[in-house]
């Protein structure tokens, strides 16, 4: 796997996995429906080569109208199903608009649970605005700035997500905008000693 940087883009040269193809397909549905989005959390280190499996694909989307959500629902309902409810009105009002995830799975042979939720606060809006493009062969995905993903994972405090933060930090260390990362760390109230202890230790497998 080779990684190159060009302006706001990360060029990822690898053979896509079955998970990558499934994520690309779902992301492209959102793109066709003009829903601004990005992938967050556990899938990001796996995209960049970390060993492990992640059945939950967390997706953050812009705040959309019910009409736009319904258009998406009608496009995917023959191929995907909603785990929360079979009613699009309920999915929108009871889940999305209350900042809960709507879980979308493929009807046949599904291996992934796409957990989609709308942005909630200023940090979410900022990350969505300054999302990065990852180019994978002739296709592309959207992810947060790596500096933000590292900081977010570190803020969660559990062993797996700290390991994900350390993996991304070690992988991208020479390319990170350290001033930007310091800003995210401060926004998330992560103490300096945690950064020293958890990010600069031995890389997780």
Please characterize this protein's 3D structure:
There is one protein chain. With 205 residues, the protein is of the alpha+beta class. It has a domain at 16-120: 2-Layer Sandwich (Beta Polymerase, domain 2). The protein is built from nine helices and nine strands. A hairpin with a 6-residue loop joins strand 6 and strand 7 (113-118). It is globular and about 50 Å long. The mean pLDDT is 90.
General shape: globular
Within the largest sheet, what's the order of strands?
3-4-7-6-5
Q: Roughly how much helix do the residues carry, as a percent range?
A: 40-55%
Distance between the termini: 16 Å
Number of helices: 9
Unreliable spans: none
Q: Helix- and strand-based class?
A: alpha+beta
**Average pLDDT level:** 90
Reported by name, the CATH topology of the domain at 16-120 is: Beta Polymerase, domain 2
Q: Biggest sheet, open or closed, and with what strands and sense?
A: 5 strands, mixed
- Give the C-level CATH assignment of the domain at 16-120: Alpha Beta
Strand content: 15-25%
| Overall CATH architecture of the domain at 16-120 | 2-Layer Sandwich
Radius of gyration: 17 Å
Based on the structure, what is the oligomeric state of the protein chains? single chain
- Please provide the ordered H/E string of secondary-structure elements: EEHEHEHEHEEHEEHHHH
Compute the number of strand runs. Answer: 9
CATH superfamily of the domain at 16-120: Beta Polymerase, domain 2
